[in-house]
Amino acid sequence: MAAREALRPVDGRETVRVRGAVAGKTMTDIAAAPPTEPSSDPTERKPGRRADRSLSGGRTDTWRHPAWVRVAHWLNVTAVIVLIMSGLNILLAHPHLYWGVRSTFADPWLSIPPLPNWLLIPQGRNLAEARNYHFLFAWIFVLNGMAYLMLGLITRRFSRRLWPTGSDLKGIGPSVVEHARFHFPTDDHARTYNVIQKLTYLAMILIVLPMMLITGLSMSPGFNAVGGILLEIMGGRQSARTLHFIAAALIVGFIVIHVGLVIWTGLFNNMRAMITGWFVIEPPGSTAGPKRRGGPPDDAGDAS
Predict the structure, then answer these.
(1) How do residues 122-141 score in pLDDT, each as one tens digit?
(2) CA distance 144 to 80
(3) Rounded CA gap, 228 and 102, in Å?
(4) Rounded CA gap, 243 and 211, in Å?
(5) What is the per-residue pLDDT across 38-86, written as a single tens digit (0 to 9) for each?
(6) Exposed e or buried b for every residue in 129-145, given b needs 16+ CB within 10 A?
(7) What three-state secondary structure class fits 221?
(8) d(Cα 246, Cα 215) in Å, to the nearest integer?
(9) How close are the terminal C-alpha atoms of the chain, in Å?
(10) What pTM was computed for the model?
(11) 36, 160, 220, 266 from 281: Cα distances, Å
């Protein structure tokens, strides 16, 4: 029979030490205590996650990006930059956009003005070489994107970090206000993405980037030889070309805003997180941007 031994009271309660054997195993120094509910604290260490590291001044170093996310990010940065710059070179071979099947030269939907050579890959007008760059880095972009999507689903990173919850969607109003004021917390609220970030990243991953890929494939003569149904769905080669340009313009707009917010919320900290995986959480109440009256925000996050 197990023996019970009373110990000194702790916080006004008596702790009981149980000594004995159960199923042939000795139980020693097990404190009898009521069961506790699972913690929902975002700072609690979870399996596969590295523990936070305490820094001076009340700051905390927290693990944010695993190696595969960082590698995919920088490969994507390289591929998208080359795709945009080589794509501009290709576009300048005929800098006019139309809708439909044919080019109505007298009435283009949009005309692109001359661009400086430093925006083009290769430097200067060279359609054949620009296509070589474009197709090569398109494959790098596609393969990298497929690996990123597969790992994001397998590790459930998308559901944990990107998919908005019901409470996220209810807080979209305050989040819009925070963004309009350029007010971004750098304390514990920065551990997670806010609802606008989640929706924006999902729109890029699930809508804009696939749109750029599909419209690009629909213009490929080799792909059309295998199955040209995509071109019909797009409404013709000129419509596909225009939609491809619109997708590229949305990506450029995203990059400009993304890089601006990375700088605004702490360039060194955000770059360090995407290079080493570690991100510094500032003391409670810390913010990037102009100070405001009132308490901490209900919905906010990092911009990296």
Answers:
(1) 988 899 999 999 999 999 99
(2) 11
(3) 16
(4) 8
(5) 344 444 445 456 788 888 888 899 999 999 999 999 999 999 999 999 9
(6) ebeebbeebbebbeebb
(7) helix
(8) 10
(9) 59
(10) 0.74
(11) 28, 19, 47, 11
State the Cα–Cα distance between residues 109 and 104, nearest whole angstrom.
9
In whole angstroms, what is the distance from residue 81 CA to residue 252 CA?
A: 9
Residue type at position 154: I
More confidently predicted of 203 and 49: 203
Instruction: Round to whole Å and give the CA distance between 247 and 301.
Output: 26
Which of 277, 274, 281, 284 shows the shortest CA–CA distance to 304?
Answer: 274
Estimate to the nearest angstrom the gap between the alpha carbon of 122 and the chain centroid: 29
Higher pLDDT: 289 or 149? It is: 149
Rounded (5°) CA angle 22-23-27: 35
CA atoms within 13 A on the CB side of 19: 7
Spatial distance between the Cα atoms of 203 and 214, rounded to a whole number of angstroms: 15
- Six-digit token string for 270: 């955000």
CATH, range 57-288:
1.20.950.20
Q: Nearest Cα to 157, choosing from 87, 64, 239?
A: 64
Query: Residue 232 pLDDT more than 90?
Result: no
For the chain, which residues make up each domain, given as ranges? 57-288
Residue type, 7: L
Q: Which residues make Cβ contacts (< 8 Å) with residue 63, sequence separation at least 6? A: 49, 50, 51, 52, 277, 278, 279
pLDDT of residue 131: 93
